[in-house]
């Protein structure tokens, strides 16, 4: 039986809005000076993570899902369901929206649509997000887009470090400049751009927009998603359940000392966003530090933690 955490090597993505904070804050070896995304836990074909330790070292996460389903509680499905990223938004991301599962499968051939959520690791003072809009009908939305009434259409909210934002499919949204987030999402790479500040690509061409598809999948009128965070504790581990919904359950863990007996009823995706320490499985000890991403497989029923650190942890929701 596989009895250790699975540490993963991330995949990095160059983005027009990216910068260098993934290197400065996490010590990653980024490929460009405009690196916007770290895909820390990914089995998506556009960037699967690679196992770094143990007898499965060198295999990618999609291969583990296909060949070693026991590590994931023998969960059904052809595709690994979640994707965990860290995003460095040096400048504004495009205003965008994502489809639901049915639309993504029918129109894009993707396994999943995209519901996501964001934990704000850090941001500049006064940083903002686009979250929702002010149109009451699809006709009104389309008219305001055609008339470039973006200030009237888009709803903005200020953020600060430690904020959490839940973004169901169909939500018009954008991450603002000067923001670093950890994103937990369905394993999908389908994005429809509504507005991109008239930016151009490296060849001087306007970036592609997807207005018609956006209007088809957008939530109109907008409604804020409701969720209720819950606090619990395991010894020196403070656990805050940030959201539990149909696709994922996400937690913020704060470790200040030792938590010796943590039950693992699912497989857990864990990202270290601050600090360092050790994870204990049986008689074995494995070190972790800021920027590490690992999976605690279903074959590990209980584990311990020691150190001072903050994590974002998640698992597929079992309803």
Automatic annotation (TrEMBL):
Domain of life: Bacteria
Keywords for this protein: Isomerase, Metal-binding, Zinc
Necessary cofactors: Zn(2+)
Enzyme type, top EC level: isomerase
Molecular function via GO: mannose-6-phosphate isomerase activity
Enzyme Commission number(s): 5.3.1.8
Pfam family, one: MPI_cupin_dom
Domain Mannose-6-phosphate isomerase cupin residue range list: 240-316
InterPro entries in the record: Carb_Metab_Reg_Kinase/Isom, Man6P_Isoase-1, Man6P_isomerase_Firm_short, MPI_cupin_dom, PMI_typeI_cat, RmlC-like_jellyroll, RmlC_Cupin_sf
Chain ranges of the Phosphomannose isomerase type I catalytic domain: 7-106
Catalysed reactions, semicolon-separated: D-mannose 6-phosphate = D-fructose 6-phosphate
Family per record: Belongs to the mannose-6-phosphate isomerase type 1 family.
NCBIfam families in UniProt: manA
Name of this protein: Mannose-6-phosphate isomerase
Organism: Fictibacillus barbaricus
């Amino acid at each position: 039986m596989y009895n250790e955490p699975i540490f993963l090597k991330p995949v990095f993505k160059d983005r027009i809005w990216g910068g260098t904070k993934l290197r400065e804050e996490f010590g990653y070896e980024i490929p460009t000076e405009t690196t916007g995304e770290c895909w820390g836990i990914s089995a998506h074909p556009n960037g699967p993570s690679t196992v770094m330790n143990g007898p499965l070292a060198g295999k990618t996460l999609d291969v583990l899902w296909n060949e070693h389903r026991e590590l994931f509680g023998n969960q059904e499905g052809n595709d690994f369901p979640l994707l965990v990223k860290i995003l460095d938004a040096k400048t504004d991301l495009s205003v965008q929206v994502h489809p639901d599962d049915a639309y993504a499968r029918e129109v894009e051939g993707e396994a999943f649509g995209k519901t996501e959520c964001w934990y704000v690791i850090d941001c500049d003072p006064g940083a903002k997000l686009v979250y929702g809009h002010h149109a009451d009908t699809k006709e009104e939305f389309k008219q305001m887009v055609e008339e470039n009434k973006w200030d009237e259409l888009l709803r903005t909210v200020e953020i600060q470090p430690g904020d959490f934002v839940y973004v169901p499919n169909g939500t018009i949204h954008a991450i603002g400049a000067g923001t670093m987030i950890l994103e937990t999402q369905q394993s999908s790479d389908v994005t429809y751009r509504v507005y991109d500040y008239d930016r151009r690509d490296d060849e001087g061409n306007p970036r592609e927009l997807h207005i018609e598809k956006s209007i088809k999948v957008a939530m109109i009128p907008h409604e804020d998603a409701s969720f209720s965070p819950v606090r619990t504790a395991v010894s020196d581990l403070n656990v805050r359940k940030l959201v539990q919904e149909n696709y994922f359950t996400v937690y913020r863990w704060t470790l200040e000392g030792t938590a010796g007996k943590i039950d693992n009823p699912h497989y857990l995706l864990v990202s270290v966003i601050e600090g360092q320490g050790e994870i204990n499985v049986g008689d074995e000890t494995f070190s972790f530090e800021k920027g590490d991403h690992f999976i605690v497989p279903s074959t590990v029923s209980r584990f311990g933690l020691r150190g001072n650190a903050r994590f974002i942890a998640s698992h597929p929701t079992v309803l």
